[in-house]
Amino acid sequence: PCSSNPCKNGGTCSVEGQNFKCSCKKPFTGNTCETGPCSSNPCKNGGTCSVDGQNFKCSCKKPFTGNMCETGPCSSSPCQNNGKCAVEGQSFKCECPKPYKGKNCEISPCASNPCQNNGKCKVDNENFKCECKAPYNGSLCQNGPCSSNPCQNSGVCEVVGLSFQCKCKEPFKGKNCEIGPCSSNPCQNRGTCKVVGINFQCDCKPPYEGKQCEKGKEKML
């Protein structure tokens, strides 16, 4: 029974009745000493397994490393946004789901920060959608209390809470900086009022004159 050398991996064969029995060298076991540290194919990603003492040793193919060749370019999960990672040569390649792109699928429709005024950008199918904070609205959260330019006479508009506040330049005042030296219509007799510095000046129609066009000249014969 031992003439066919049935005992593998250096096992010793002995005749036992009509059959044979193998005495296996450590770390091998089994009827024919066929089971060893490499039997479970522990080396991943095409690595080659060899018996090393009582254990196994893997010779890994590049770019894989680790005790069982388990570590590779995709091990760190480099593909973002549910991208699929594949080993390509010594590196990796990401297969990105729409609408993502870039080496790591890191570029999305929100990458350019399209939402204004602290609006929150969310990917919506193959585009983006802005979730706006009050009091802003619009597709890009671009519309707010100051959008209509409510501050007159070069006043500066600032958003305060859900409304606006005007910082008026002298000599203007009022909620919309609408009140100025000409607001009281100081120019009489259809004179035209204009703001000069922080005061007013009247352009009088003949025959009127004076600071407020209050004086009339007699017609010359």
TrEMBL record:
Pfam entry (one): EGF
Gene3D superfamilies according to UniProt: Laminin
Keyword Iron in record: no
Any GO CC annotation of this UniProt entry: protein-containing complex
GO terms (BP aspect): establishment or maintenance of epithelial cell apical/basal polarity; heterophilic cell-cell adhesion via plasma membrane cell adhesion molecules
GO molecular-function term, one example from the UniProt record: calcium ion binding
Name of the protein: Neurogenic locus Notch protein
UniProt source species: Araneus ventricosus (Orbweaver spider)
Classification of source organism: Eukaryota, Metazoa, Ecdysozoa, Arthropoda, Chelicerata
